Amino acid sequence: MAVEFGTNRGLQAQVGIYTTGNRAPDDVGSAWPDERWPVSPDDWRARAREALDEGPWGYLEGGAGGEETMCANRDAFYRWRLRPRVLRDVSARDISIELLDKRFPAPFLLAPVGVQEIVHPQADLAAARAAAARGIPFVSSTVSSVPLEGIAAAMGEGPRWFQLYPARSREVIASMLRRAQSAGYEALVVTLDTTMLGWRERDLRQGYLPFLEGKGLANYFADPAFRALLGRPPQEDPRAAVETFLSVYVNPGFTWEDLAFCRELWHGPLWLKGITHPDDAIAALDHGADGVIVSNHGGRQLDGAVAALDALPAVATAVAGRVPLLLDGGVRRGADVLKALALGASAVLIGRLYLYGLAAAGEAGVGRVIDNLMADIDLTLGLCGRRSIQEVGRDLVTADGATG
User: Fold this and answer.
1) Is 287 in the active site?
2) What's the Rg (C-alpha) of the chain?
3) 313 CB contacts (<8 Å, ≥6 apart)?
4) Domain range for residue 222?
5) pTM for this predicted structure
6) Catalytic residue (one of 120, 267, 277, 297)
7) Count of domains in the chain?
8) pLDDT tens across 5-20, in order?
9) 291 occurs within a structural domain
């Protein structure tokens, strides 16, 4: 599939859906009662739930504690309303964006999500191929189910970023960053909010941690610096390899000073993910960040935390346009994307949404989710009286109930 820019995707998608009756191909839809593609996020979620056992479903769908933060991420979008303008010529629309001098066909990326093999056998390869075919950046997780080199090979020339969980071992960090650069990853995303795992009640109730089964450890088991920590290769002593991973994976002692180590090693754009406080955003700039990702890890880390969208305006004010901002958390539809852009984001990340597609139908499911979201953004943009993402500003949204 050729990457397209500046086309009216919404109408094209609608015509395609209506003329085919929304029928899925036989190799996909035959397992579904109505043989039709899911459309709404709730439809995709239901299909994913049908496909997954309790452990993987809880890992995908759950959040920390009472899941207040996860719920807050969605609730925050309901507190803002779009204020459309009418009688403007929006017959030609363009949803493409520029991000750090790179042009992409839509204002969203696929977020880093680990352990995708518990969702679908094709795991990261399916999601990465679907993204690459459409020119959408795929952010590959440290705890992917396929080594980063394999994901890069599957994507060809597709845009790809690498996400890093800073390990206790600087040697492992350095080795992974060298590998990512050699494999053509264009940007580095360092996650700051997972220096320890949150209290995830669904996973604890099930006693389910896929790392203990060796899942999500492909990058570590293939890494020479990590393997140097082992007495025997992972395939000969998988239990010892898993235990070694658990000893280096999280790093509660990681500080701004340690971040400088990553900045020195990475020769490309550096994004910092997991920031919700404006003072931390300023510190990110002071420590060489090229971009900030406003995120609370999808509500999976700290319960009772501020919603990502609620944190965005203050962070945008603090950054004052010096670097681009991405919003991660709670995005499901085109209206959500435009609200985030109006409040200061340059683009958004989607996570659970594309994982629903992966669980339901593998690569085809992820591709369908991407296509539908691009169509939704295009139509929403036009209905708001805007022709391009560059025309989206703060005047597009108003707080719920405000009319001034």
Assistant:
1) no
2) 21
3) 343, 344
4) 9-399
5) 0.96
6) 297
7) 1
8) 767 899 999 999 999 9
9) yes
